[in-house]
Amino acid sequence: MSGLISILNSVDDDYLIGISNKGTLKRAYKDKEEIECAVVHFDLEDEEAEVKTGEETVKIKVPLSESTCTCPSRSICRHIVLGILVLCEQNSKSVDSANTEKKIADTGESKEDKASPVCDKAEVQTDSNEKEKVELKTKEDSKTSEINTLQNLKEELAGYPVEKAIKLIGIRRYTKLIDEIKLGVKAEINETSIVTVKLPSGNHVIKLLYPLEHSACTCHKKEFCAHKAEAVIWYKHQNNLLNENDMVVNLGNVRQVNDKEIKEVALALSDFIEAIINTGLSRISYDILDAVDRMALLCHNAGLANFEGYFRSLRESFDAYLKRKASFKTEALMNETMRLYRRIKMLCEIEDSSKLAGLAGNFRGEYQSVANLELTTVTATHFTNRSGYEGETYYFIENNTSEWYSYTVSRPMFYENKRRTYTEMSEAPWGLDINMRELCNIHFKLNNAKFDDRKRLSSTQDSKGEIIETSHIDRELVSKWYYDDFTELFEEQMIKNLRKWITPKKEMEARESELIFVNPSHFDKAEFIQKEQKLVMRLVDSNDIELWIEVQYNKLEENGIKFLEKLLPEKNLCFLGKVYIKNGRMCMYPITVVKISKDSETADERQLNEQNEEECNTEGSLFNEKVSIIEYIQTLLKDISVLMADLYQGGLIAINDSIIAETGAKAEKLRDIEMTLMSEKLEKLKEKLEMHRHLFDEKKQQNISEILEIYAYIVEYLYIGIQKTEYDIVKESIQNKRKRIGESNE
């Protein structure tokens, strides 16, 4: 039996819906009754047939999804489906005719005898029984063909290479799929003449057909898409063709294919950073910007998404240095360069494929389906980041969980010099009948919301928004993020700002989405410091603990600075922003100022607040304490950081004698206060620097790598140490302030 006949015997409505859709099949059935159709060519031995369906001519091929039609449609149209239905009917009649002729040959009847009206009841009964047998045989043959088609599909699914599926799905999504399986998540799978799979994440439904490459997906992509590959994995797992251990092993096999390329790219990146340190910042020319761009492109081509971002950020830092921007700091660039160097070395050292994939990152985040959300828009802010993007971020509070969610609209700016643009009047996402500006003032439901692990909302059309009312922010809604006691703010939030040297990008971005509401007892009028080109404002709580607002001047911050300068003290006025520690005190970068309703103060609370305000006006800064050991260590670490920045500035080509001498002196001071580990590292660096000056060119390169290994460790130590001393100084200051208040109350 030819391939075309075999497929026609097994075709049913499910199969036809799979290669087209339900609406197309219904239209084809309707056309079958109304349009004159004729089989132009249909030979049992051929792999192709031709059917005339009205004015169109259809060529039915094997596989059926490769069939063509003279109409303009490029997909499986109603004419093709109609042609298949006509062929199936013709094939059924041919089977009936063949079975009838076989029955006549077996019984010895002639056509004339069969046509004779003269027969007894027994003969009529016999003919009826034979007819039923023929019909039953035809149905069984059809069922057998259907089973054979499904069996062929199952065999193809069982033999589909998992590595090929992983490449289509992507490492990140495949890893997440493994996690879902471990949690007991299952896909909805239904078997007929085809296999239908509904994915557990998202609303995609995949119809797996035989042959497999002609399967259909609700994403409407003709090629074998990531959803189809994921459906294959779910089928293999839920039919015991693939277990969790095999999935992990296959993940490792796929990554090993690319590991060699990544290692080669990592070595090139490492050489580039070493060349920068060797040359020194002071000898860097404008060519460095193009060179860093090339490194970013190299990372992009190798699939190192995170590293492309790191290099684009590094380019912005070098650009700030070359343009002599006031915001540029050598120590910050040194930290950024050495942190990137350490990440590159990790690329070279890591053997575990899953960890390597996590370090490399993905160009596109994965979103997961969740239950309906009830969101209140809090604020929106414009941004331009160092990776070359600008846009707006909208912040929402979920009314039931009090968790932060965000939605970002961004535009790349690193290939062109465009003026800042806004999207205020553009259409809001999720089918909301408002513009982006009006999005800032609503309380709404978001049905079938999707977000990633950083709680960034997706603008997918599957999510539908429903406006409830204009937004109203009260204390109960934001209680998890609301502080009028700055000691609690320090204890609960500031500890989160103690960053590791290598903080995962996902963790950093998740922290960035969290905003804090600060309601001070009172605050001073803002002051703009001309020398430093920044605005400062002191906020004070009821216990006289201070929080400082600092905003560095630039074009983006100009309007915000003017607003804060005009701001007058007012009760229940909350500052919304991000908190951090700087120069031994708590600080905040403000995003907006809002009013939050709360219960009225009692008479005792008002009296206490007035008393604290008087004490604040007469008492000096809480940082005028005698220098403690913590402050001494911090000063020493900052001095060493400046020394390391001088080495970064001058480079290894011409090492200054004073730097070598000062490195030894700082090692002695550290030894005096029993910071032995750091002291030994500085001594080792001093030895390597002295040796480097006397080596020949062929040996210098190896020595540079050894120097940078020590240098990177020292810079990391200084970063963590200074950060920790900042935290400890603020903690000590708060404790001293509260102790003094307690003693005065006694």
Structure, described:
This protein is of the alpha+beta class and 746 residues long. Helices cover 50% and strands 17% of the residues. It has 22 helices and 23 strands. Helix 1 crosses helix 6, helix 19 (629-650) runs antiparallel to helix 22 (697-745) and helix 20 packs antiparallel against helix 21 (676-692). The longest helix has 49 residues, at 697-745. The protein is globular and about 100 Å long.
Mean pLDDT: 79
What proportion of the residues is helical, as a percent range? 40-55%
Strand content: 15-25%
User: Compute the gyration radius: what is it?
Assistant: 37 Å
Bulk shape: globular
Q: Structural class of the secondary elements?
A: alpha+beta
List the uncertain runs: 110-126, 133-146, 599-627
Largest sheet: 8 strands, mixed
DSSP helix count?
22
* Structure summary, number of beta strands: 23
What is the distance, rounded to the nearest whole angstrom, between the alpha carbons of the first and last residues?
A: 103 Å
Outline the fold blueprint.
Layout: H1 3-10, H2 13-19, H3 22-34, E1 37-41, E2 48-53, E3 56-61, E4 68-69, H4 78-107, H5 111-115, H6 121-158, H7 162-169, H8 171-182, E5 188-191, E6 195-198, E7 205-208, E8 216-217, H9 226-238, H10 244-279, H11 287-301, H12 305-322, H13 330-349, H14 353-360, E9 368-369, E10 373-384, E11 389-398, E12 404-412, E13 442-447, E14 450-451, E15 464-470, E16 482-483, H15 486-493, H16 505-512, E17 516-518, E18 522-523, E19 527-529, E20 534-540, E21 546-552, H17 558-566, E22 573-582, E23 585-595, H18 603-618, H19 629-650, H20 657-672, H21 676-692, H22 697-745
Parallel strand pairs: 16-17, 21-23
Antiparallel strand pairs: 1-2, 2-3, 3-4, 5-6, 6-7, 7-8, 9-14, 10-11, 10-13, 11-12, 13-15, 17-22, 18-20, 19-20, 20-21, 22-23
Helix pairs in contact: 1-6, 2-3, 3-4, 4-6, 7-9, 7-10, 8-10, 10-13, 10-14, 11-12, 12-13, 13-22, 19-20, 19-22, 20-21, 21-22
